[in-house]
Design goal:
Radius of gyration of chain B: 22 Å
Shape of chain A: elongated
Distance between the termini of chain A: 28 Å
Order of helices and strands of chain B: HHHHHHHHHHHH
Low-confidence stretches of chain A: none
Structural class of chain A: alpha+beta
Largest sheet of chain B: none
CATH class of one domain in chain B: Mainly Alpha
Helix content of chain A: 10-25%
Oligomer: heterodimer
Order of helices and strands of chain A: EEEHEEEHHHEHEHEEHHEEEEEEEEEE
CATH architecture of one domain in chain B: Orthogonal Bundle
Number of helices of chain B: 12
Low-confidence stretches of chain B: 257-261
Largest sheet of chain A: 6 strands, mixed
Strand order of the largest sheet of chain A: 6-7-8-3-9-10
CATH topology of one domain in chain B: MetI-like fold
CATH superfamily of one domain in chain B: MetI-like
Helix content of chain B: over 70%
Strand content of chain A: 25-35%
């Protein structure tokens, strides 16, 4: 990235003796949609609040559009924010809520009205300008909150778990709407979530956070398929981990549960005799021989869960459990717990972590 | 059986509170021999001292309310927003006027601000009025603070403040356009309570020698028979009127359910 729009440089935040964010570095390009993904308490919201100006970094620098905003007050940053709890002003109508930032900025009344109408049509609620927040559903309130944040044309849009309080259907619809609006306006956006599906589906890039550190910053495809750390691999998607011992690092051979597993590449970080963890996504593993998959391991059926269209099977391979999904075929009975079984997968799908 | 006891307790309670009031009201209507009349009320309302003291106390009540709002709303807001750990201490401070008698407070004022002190407020009528207003504000503080604090509890002060800040608002705009309108009903409840306290207060006004309604009620009570009862009924009427206004205003409270259900 040649010229980042938002730069977080060596950001650290401590509350007393507790450091909640450390050495956080991130460059975000103009118009990019970046998600902070991580479990509760990983520091993602703290970073967002530092960008917004609600928390002051203990160290480091925040640059927006080349300007150092680290010590600027929140009301001087021109950064729009949408909160998990909507935070609409209860005493103001929808239109007044949307116009609030414009009114504070001293924009002329006629211009305010035009902008409010434009924003209402953007969020597809043109008829609700006179309603009060309590007269709207959760999804509608959050759309109004989005319009309110966008109305003063902020440099940056921050979304702090905006979908967490909504039910599943509304969440999916609204996240697509947020992405569409973001792309239409081309506004640089930071989205905080603990929901991996949300982050994977709408982000240009994801920063996976753990204990105050960005473990990996990459595209959703890379995060899912090429996790750089064990935490990322475990946190994003379901992962099967097989413990093994390296037998030939140059040829990339690992012994797992008494069988050799040949990897696609040589092993660089461990040498022969070292313990190593191999990770497999459930969708890369087949029960039985599979269609042309190269590697096979024997085990025993440990658990079978019928989920309707699919059957989730857990196979015990040595001391490890490998979870995989097979399609439900009514003419074929599901496997039974205790049966001998084999699993197969391609060497290229194995992640060494 | 349980229900019967409940009704009996309720009836006894009503009798306990209502009988003296009924008796007093009946007595206030007996000024004319042999028939009920409003003579005592006419006499009280026609007394120029009534009009003078009542106007004075109403004026003082309005000033006290304004002072209380400007002092309590930002304080309670700031404590909730930035100093939540200080809340128990602030609550204790606001309760002190209930423990310290008004006479102690007013003697303290006189001692501190008399004509030979560094700030001789009692040396002029305006200064003494100011002192009396501070005294009233102190007496009303437990009620005003609690009313405002309860109002603030119904809204998400922190998030609303941050939302307003992210939209470019400064502290004054946030307080005036977001916080105050959302706790207005609570503020009005506190205001009506303050109004009732100021109208009935005797000790401070008497010791600071101000022409307030409280001392006038006491003076009338000491020298007349029927008029004090009429005045007491009027005072009750004002207090109840204030309480009714609190109820009415509460119905127009802005709904604060703009939070996730």
């Amino acid at each position: 990235m040649s010229d980042p729009f938002l730069s977080l440089r060596n950001i650290r935040k401590s509350f007393g003796a507790t450091t909640v964010v450390q050495d956080f570095n991130l460059d975000v390009g103009q118009g990019e949609f970046v998600s902070f993904l991580g479990p509760s308490g990983c520091g993602k919201t703290t970073v967002l609040r530092m960008i917004a100006g609600f928390e002051e970094p203990s160290a480091g620098q925040i640059l927006v559009g080349g300007q150092d905003v680290t010590r600027l007050k929140p009301n001087q940053r021109n950064i729009g924010m949408v909160f998990q709890a909507y935070a609409l002003f209860p005493n103001l109508t929808v239109a007044q809520n949307i116009a609030f930032g414009l009114r504070v900025a001293g924009v002329a009344k006629a211009e305010q009205d035009d902008r409010v109408a434009e924003m209402l049509s953007l969020i597809k609620l043109p008829q609700l300008g006179d309603r009060y927040p309590y007269q709207l559903s959760g999804g509608q309130q959050q759309r109004v909150a989005l319009a309110r944040a966008l109305a003063p044309s902020p440099k940056l849009l921050l979304l702090d778990e905006p979908l967490s309080a909504l039910d599943a259907k509304v969440r999916v619809a609204l996240r697509e709407e947020i992405r569409a609006i973001q792309q239409r306006l081309g506004i640089t956006t930071i989205f905080v979530t603990h929901d991996q599906e949300e982050a994977l589906s709408i982000s240009d890039r994801i920063a996976v956070m753990h204990q105050g550190v960005a473990e990996q910053v990459a595209t959703p495809f890379e995060i899912y398929n090429r996790p750089s750390t064990r935490f990322v691999a475990n946190f994003v998607g379901t992962l099967n981990v097989l413990e093994g011992v390296v037998t030939d690092e140059r040829r990339g051979v690992v012994q797992v549960a008494g069988s050799d597993v040949a990897l696609a590449d040589k092993i660089t970080k461990q040498k022969a005799g070292d313990r190593v963890s191999l990770a497999l996504r459930p969708e890369t593993v087949s029960l039985g021989e599979g269609g042309g998959q190269q590697t096979r391991l024997n085990g025993k059926i440990a658990e079978v869960s019928f989920l309707g269209s699919v059957i989730r099977v857990k196979v015990a391979v040595g001391d490890d459990l490998v979870s995989l999904d097979t399609f439900n075929k009514p003419q074929m009975p599901p496997p039974r717990v205790g049966d001998q079984a084999s699993i197969s997968f391609n060497a290229g799908d194995v992640l060494v972590i | 059986m349980k229900k019967a006891w409940a009704w009996l307790a309720l009836f006894a309670g009503i009798l306990y509170f209502a009988l003296p009031l009924i008796g007093m009201t009946e007595f206030s209507l007996k000024m004319r021999r042999g028939e009920y009349s409003f003579d005592a009320y006419a006499k009280v309302l026609g007394d120029p001292r009534f009009q003078q003291t009542f106007t004075y106390s109403v004026g003082m009540a309005i000033v006290t309310i304004l002072f209380g709002v400007f002092l309590i709303v930002p304080t309670a807001y700031w404590v909730r927003l930035k100093l939540p750990r200080l809340r128990p201490f602030i609550e204790f401070v606001t309760l002190l006027p209930l423990i310290i008698p008004a006479i102690v407070i007013v003697f303290g004022y006189i001692r501190l601000y008399n004509t030979s002190s560094w700030l001789p407020l009692t040396g002029s009528a305006t200064g003494t009025n100011l002192l009396l207003m501070f005294g009233y504000a102190t007496l009303a503080m437990p009620y005003m603070y609690r009313a405002v604090d309860t109002g603030l509890r119904t809204i998400d002060v922190t998030t609303l403040t941050e939302a307003a800040q992210s939209l470019g608002a400064g502290w004054f705009t946030i307080l005036a356009r977001i916080i105050l309108p959302n706790v207005l009903v609570a503020v009005l409840s506190g205001a009506f309570l303050t109004f009732a306290i100021v109208l009935g207060e005797f000790t401070m006004a008497a010791l600071l020698n101000r022409p307030a309604f409280g001392p006038f009620m006491q003076l009338l009570g000491a020298n007349r028979a029927y008029e004090p009862a009429a005045l007491a009924v009027i005072a009750f009427g004002i207090t109840w009127g204030c309480m009714a206004l609190i109820q009415i205003v509460s119905r127009f409270a802005p709904k604060a359910q703009s939070q996730p259900h």
